[in-house]
Design goal:
- By secondary structure, the chain is mainly beta.
- Helix content is 10%, strand content 52%.
- The chain contains 4 helices and 24 strands.
- Strands 4-3-2-1-5-6-7-8-9-10 form a 10-stranded antiparallel beta sheet. Strands 13-16-17-18-19-21-22-24 form an 8-stranded antiparallel β-barrel.
- It is elongated.
- It starts with a helix and ends in a 5-residue tail after the last strand.
- Keywords: Signal.
Length: 418
């Protein structure tokens, strides 16, 4: 199992490194106030972008904080340019052990706007994730979430100063009857709900924070066709010498769940799938007459009913709203039964037929490593291929085999996740 698991993990780890342009409709507002409409290369940034790639005609152009004040990606994120003061003090406990700089930095950034209205909420992710807010026309101010460590006990303490900031701002602007911040969590979901209530409206505005509530689990099911190929040789079994195996095509059915990861990595998903198919192959060969044995014509027949459970990592190299293309790799556990597993040997000189049934005692559980690719159209319809690159069901050291499967799948996705 270890020799199969390592390549699968390495393949899955490499997937996010793949880069792909992803132009989607949007607009930018230049510092002078001009609005340019076109397409923006949306990379679902882990950290707030310093610059973006924009095109409306001709070659794409890079725009940064010195060029534009607004970025709006249709159906996704809205960024506003602001000059802010931010803290560098870490909130990750591990960073306290390796040392850090605790200071305030004045910076010009694109803040991702979560809620707009009288009460405005923004997110900024750099060395850490931070939130900023402003009421009416105020410049955004950092909502303070402070982690400290006691020098003597080494225990960590959290100060939710942002709650007092919000309460003071409610008093300043006469919103004392607004939502209570005393139990508010320092998270995008919790703060977004608070600011929407503070505005007294369900309107989510340009930031489209429904993305935070996106359905992260999608169920799918479908059918397809499985192309089976087999090679099998042995240094101690002459019946397998010169034996050729034909390829077979069998129907397959499958169902599974896609699990999306955090918002900043929506291109990456984990997929858990169960599929059922029959692996079948027929082999023919012959052995020549020798001083110890007669000439034989050998026919081998294999029928294996297979339930396969697969855990895959898939990465969407193209991620348009109604068109997504993915590649990935996975690790499979197969549960197999063998309704037919026999060798028929015919000795010409003796006109004698011998049947060996079962011929080999194969594994009932075995592993595979798969690679896969596919396309999702209109969030509902999926066509994909997966191919087994490693794995076999033999437990004999002298028997070498390479069972390979190429599976065409057509799936229907029941929930509008990715």
């Amino acid at each position: 199992m270890k020799r199969l698991l390592l390549p699968a993990l390495l393949f899955a780890t490499c997937l996010p490194a793949i880069a792909q342009k992803n132009f989607v409709p949007g607009y930018v507002v230049k510092l002078g106030g001009d609005t340019l409409r076109g397409e923006i290369d949306n990379q679902d940034w882990t950290k707030n972008p310093r610059k973006i790639l924009f095109r409306n005609s001709g070659q794409p152009v890079n725009y940064g904080v010195s060029d534009i004040r607004t970025i709006n990606i249709q159906g996704a994120d809205h960024y506003e340019r602001h000059i802010i003061t931010r803290s560098t003090r870490p909130v990750n406990y591990d960073e306290f052990r390796i040392g850090f700089v605790d200071t305030l930095v004045t910076d010009t950034v694109f803040l991702r706007q979560l809620v707009a209205g009288k009460w405005n909420l923004y997110a900024l992710e750099m060395e850490k994730k931070m939130f900023f807010f402003g009421v009416e026309d105020e410049q955004p101010v950092e909502l303070k979430y402070i982690v400290t460590q006691n020098d003597s006990t080494l225990n960590f303490y959290v100060t939710n100063e942002f709650r007092e900031q919000l309460k003071a701002k409610q008093m300043q602007f006469g919103d004392e009857n607004g939502p209570d911040p005393s139990r508010l969590q320092y998270s995008e979901t919790s703060l977004t709900k608070f600011f929407i209530k503070a505005n007294g409206s369900p309107n989510k505005t340009a930031a489209e924070p429904e993305k935070e509530k996106k359905k992260l689990i999608t169920f799918y099911a479908g059918g397809g066709a499985m192309l089976n190929t087999l090679t099998m040789t042995s240094s101690v079994d002459p019946k397998l010498k010169n034996m050729s195996f034909d390829a077979t095509l069998r129907p397959s059915i499958q169902a599974g769940l896609d699990f999306a990861t955090a918002r900043s990595n929506q291109r990456l998903e984990m997929r858990l799938e169960a599929s059922y198919f029959q692996f079948a192959s027929n082999g023919k060969g012959s052995t020549e007459k020798s001083s110890l044995a007669t000439a034989k014509d050998n026919t081998y027949t294999l029928r294996m009913n297979n339930l396969r459970l697969t855990l895959s990592a898939v990465y969407h190299i193209i991620a348009y709203p109604n068109l997504r293309v993915f590649i990935g790799g996975g690790y499979s556990m197969n549960f197999s039964g063998y309704p037919e597993n026999k060798m028929v040997s015919y000795e010409k000189d003796l006109d004698k037929t011998t049947v060996f049934d079962p011929y080999y005692d194969f594994e009932s559980t075995w592993q595979q490593v798969l690679v896969r690719a596919g396309v999702v159209i209109n969030k509902r319809y999926e066509a994909g291929l997966n191919y087994s690159i490693l794995g076999d069901f033999s437990n004999y050291s002298k028997l070498e085999m390479s069972p390979r499967t190429l599976n065409l799948q057509l799936n229907y996705r029941f929930r509008k996740g990715q």
